[in-house]
């Protein structure tokens, strides 16, 4: 996985198929972006696999990035031939799956504000990952699974038996690796301000045990809770 998806504290989103339009027009019964016309929710070939550059699990989530309809540009109503444009077009890519996940995050923020719950980016990430649907792939292929905005909102409202899951060790383990590398970084040479990570520990859903030598082990405790 490359930049910017390897950002350890960002939300990296991969792409899965949605066969809603198979059988449409010239694409009838033809596979696109994948190798099947039979099923949805397959991780697409072009969706980057993990781990990240420091060995942490990536991606974090999956969303629809192939075989799907998206709205056409609303600022242009006629084609070059002055024919009416279709309201929807076929599009695919992680450039589609990432905005869908971002929209899910926006809905989650709206629900948190309605409940007057304070939040930070890590909380948004944890709620989305805790509520994701398992696609039965390994974590370095699918992350936590397919983003599910409805179940994420259900966690906020305490509905549907949904819970947030997180641990306090992943952030510290990532920070230790990054701090070791950043300590050798000469910010004065590049004329930028010295940077560093917060001393505060943020809970994270994903598990990263740090860099281990042969024979070493790392453990953590996961917490399951409602908002």
How many strand units?
6
How is the biggest beta sheet arranged? 2 strands, parallel
In terms of DSSP E residues, the strand content is 5-15%
In percent, how helical is the residue content? Answer: 25-40%
- Give the quaternary arrangement of the chains: single chain
The residue ranges in which pLDDT falls below 50 over 5 or more consecutive positions are: none
Order of helices and strands: EEEEHHHHEHHE
Rounded to the nearest angstrom, the distance between the terminal CA atoms is 32 Å
What is the residue-mean pLDDT, rounded to a whole number? 83
Strands ordered across the widest β-sheet: 1-2
The geometry reads as globular
Rg measurement, Å: 20 Å
Question: Topology of this protein?
Answer:
Blueprint lengths: L12 E5 L43 E6 L1 E4 L16 E4 L2 H21 L6 H10 L8 H4 L6 H9 L6 E4 L1 H14 L4 H4 L31 E4 L2
Helix pairs in contact: 1-2, 1-4, 2-4
Structure description:
With 227 residues, this protein is α+β, with helices and mostly antiparallel strands. Helix content is 27%, strand content 12%. The chain contains six helices and six strands; from the N terminus they run E-E-E-E-H-H-H-H-E-H-H-E. The protein has helices at 94-114, 121-130, 139-142, 149-157, 169-182, 187-190; strands spanning 13-17, 61-66, 68-71, 88-91, 164-167, 222-225. The strands form three sheets. The chain has a two-stranded parallel sheet with strand order 1-2. Strands 3-4 form a two-stranded antiparallel sheet. A two-stranded antiparallel sheet has the order 5-6. Helix 1 (94-114) packs across helix 2, helix 1 (94-114) runs parallel beside helix 4 (149-157) and helix 2 packs across helix 4. It starts with 12 loop residues before the first strand and ends with a strand.
